[in-house]
Amino acid sequence: YKRVTVKSLVDMKKHGEKISMLTAYDYSMAKIVDAAQVDVILVGDSASNVMAGHETTLPITLDQMIYHASSVIRAVKRALVVVDLPFGSYQSDPKEALRSAIRIMKESGGHAVKLEGGSEIKESIKRILNAGIPVMGHLGLTPQSIYKFGTYTVRAREEEEAEKLIEDAKFLEKAGCFSIVLEKIPADLAKKVAESVSIPIIGIGAGNGVDGQVLVVHDLLGITQEFNPRFLRRYLNLYEEMGNAISQYVEDVKSKDFPNDEEQY
Ligand code: KIV
Ligand code: NA
């Protein structure tokens, strides 16, 4: 396996090769995702929703993110593993941000961190980068500030917010981020952002004019059911398939069909 690095991603953009990225939060799923040649695995704070059942990403802790990330790292041979800094682990001051990023790198073995926000978190980004830790940005819909906006609707539809987003992307590039996630913004704007910077822009609900795509793996596999945004392409309906398999197991236990003569000692 030739490992994907921060540099290979920038080269992929240069050569026009699209970048594939998916989340994973545990060893078994990360093994499947990595073997399928996904370029970047994101240990997203969406684990707060998907793994823990919280309504938002806010409750997940740094310790919990480290647990998820270390599980993923043990499975991965090829992908670049990016770990979200959770809400509350980087906003209060740049030194805390650096301490949190260092804990992720040391205790999980992750390869890079992701932070939500633009110029507001400038000092934190600089400190983390100065320590030699690669940083991925995240602009557009930033779920850690959901209570500021009140909804998960499309962002930057207005001129002013669109201008600020382009400025923030340029700022993040200049600060030294190796890539930026753009979440749920108009496709035309996302394309414009991707053309304005030389670092790869990875979109989710940001159209086809960007340099790569990211989805939550449980959404793509149809393990989650209630979440149905326009941008989601479901490749399987595992909720139903897994449910059917498990119902069959229950039936086989009840009917004494399982275990049969070959399935015992
Ligand atoms: O936490 C997450 O899954 C994310 C992606 C949606 C980009 O940040
Ligand atoms: Na996230």
From TrEMBL:
Catalyses which reaction(s): (6R)-5,10-methylene-5,6,7,8-tetrahydrofolate + 3-methyl-2-oxobutanoate + H2O = 2-dehydropantoate + (6S)-5,6,7,8-tetrahydrofolate
Pathway assignment: Cofactor biosynthesis; (R)-pantothenate biosynthesis; (R)-pantoate from 3-methyl-2-oxobutanoate: step 1/2
Location, primary (coarse class): cytoplasm
Keywords of this entry: Cytoplasm, Magnesium, Metal-binding, Methyltransferase, Pantothenate biosynthesis, Transferase
Enzyme class: transferase
Cofactor note: Binds 1 Mg(2+) ion per subunit.
Subcellular location: Cytoplasm
Active site as annotated: E183 (proton acceptor)
Record carries keyword Methyltransferase: yes
Chain sites annotated for binding 3-methyl-2-oxobutanoate: D45, S46, D84, K114
InterPro entries: Pantoate_hydroxy_MeTrfase, Pyrv/PenolPyrv_kinase-like_dom, Pyrv_kinase-like_dom_sf
Alphabetical GO biological process terms: methylation; pantothenate biosynthetic process
GO MF term set: 3-methyl-2-oxobutanoate hydroxymethyltransferase activity; magnesium ion binding; methyltransferase activity
Subunit text: Homodecamer; pentamer of dimers.
Function of the molecule: Catalyzes the reversible reaction in which hydroxymethyl group from 5,10-methylenetetrahydrofolate is transferred onto alpha-ketoisovalerate to form ketopantoate.
PANTHER family xref list: 3-METHYL-2-OXOBUTANOATE HYDROXYMETHYLTRANSFERASE
Name of the protein: 3-methyl-2-oxobutanoate hydroxymethyltransferase
Organism field: Arenibacter nanhaiticus
